[in-house]
Amino acid sequence: MDGGAMVESKQSPLPDDALLAVLAFLSPAELLRCRLVCRRFRDLCLHPDLWRSVWLSDAGLLRAVLRLAPCLGSMFLKDMFFRPTLQAVAPLVPSITCAVASVTFMIQQQESVTLVIDLIRKLSALGGLRVVQLDTLSEVHFPPAFFELIYGLKDLCELELRMQCSPPLSDALLSTQAVKPSLTKLIYGYSADYFVQLLLRTHAATLENVCLMTGGQLPSALRTIVAPNLQSLTCHLNSDLAYSEALSHVHKLKLIAFGEYPFPPEALDFLRQSAQLRSVKLTFVKALPSPADPLFALAASPSAPSLESLSLLCASDSLRAMAGVLARFPSLQTLTISILQSITYMSADAKLCDDFMRAVSPESAPRLTSLTLPPVKGCIHSWLHGPAVQDLLARNPGLHLRADCDAMEFPAPHCDCHWCRWGCHQELKTAAGLRRCSFAAHFKEVGCPKGCVKWL
């Protein structure tokens, strides 16, 4: 009896479900190798349940999986000069039989456009394609055929297009296609052109998450369509953001401002009228003349009593405004404050941060469990041992404090502060160690973040 038959006979008493549960722990490469064990393993290792959630970006594995596996959860393809994967799978396109649920492209060469179109068309014909993401890193021009293909994809759930060039489309193009609404998530990164208008109108009934990085313009379709399921909206801050029935059910809002202009009255009015907001993120790349205006508008809205998450990337003056309106958000559970140019914090900014921490209490923020603040310039170790942080945690026993370390300056390896000389908490010397920590006045309990650390 040969070795393969012996393995097959020894394993045959085990049911397929048990073997599949074991095989689920193997990597894609190990699954392909296990196909050689015996005939039974050859079939089990290609069971669809083992491949539906697999994500691949390695060129060699992709070539093998696209030839052999019945399906694949997601694949990432790029045409960059360093380890390109799109060109590696190009010869396989006509013979692919693997149904892929999600495909992501990162493109910077004009020559790749035809291959992208052919691959999407092939995967669509196989069925099961639910997610398409495309990011162009240069001015790559896509022909009308690409947008006709994307628009006509059946049962597509998520579409993300971040492009450097506007689609060459007209109002008459695509008008003959009858497309059934299916998109739940749309991310579009160019201008408020005809194509995004068409997508919004076509899929209005199913859209739940919309992110429009459309260069200061908000498509008029977004204000006029009937979108009963729209819950999340991300867009640039502009005067086109007006309150409407189409946006009245938005639960999650992210506004991004790039200029040095005041908050438009229309956008402030949108914040004042919104009644369903549960999560708000305001990002100001440059300091605004009146940084407190959006906070005051949000605090006066019907959403204020039920707001659960608030994130601010703003100037340090907003700390003072946030301290004044904190009590208007009694349901707030997560608060994140990042300060513009926080690595150049001066003593005045440090005082604002300390004053804000003194304003946080069980009376002003009764449900707050997660607070992220930018530490002052200098040693993070010394800041955490300082009286302001110690007092904050003592007054709020259920709070978890995180330090915003994305834009901060870490001390030298041989910091001269007495805490570092003492040698405690060496993990705070690096951003990775700091990100793992949530500082609290209690030991880790059920429901605490993974990195909960008793700090007092």
From TrEMBL:
Domain F-box: 8-54
InterPro entries to which the protein is assigned, alphabetical: F-box-like_dom_sf, F-box_dom, LRR_dom_sf
Family matches, as Pfam families: F-box-like (PF12937)
Protein's organism: Thrips palmi
Protein name: Uncharacterized protein LOC117642760
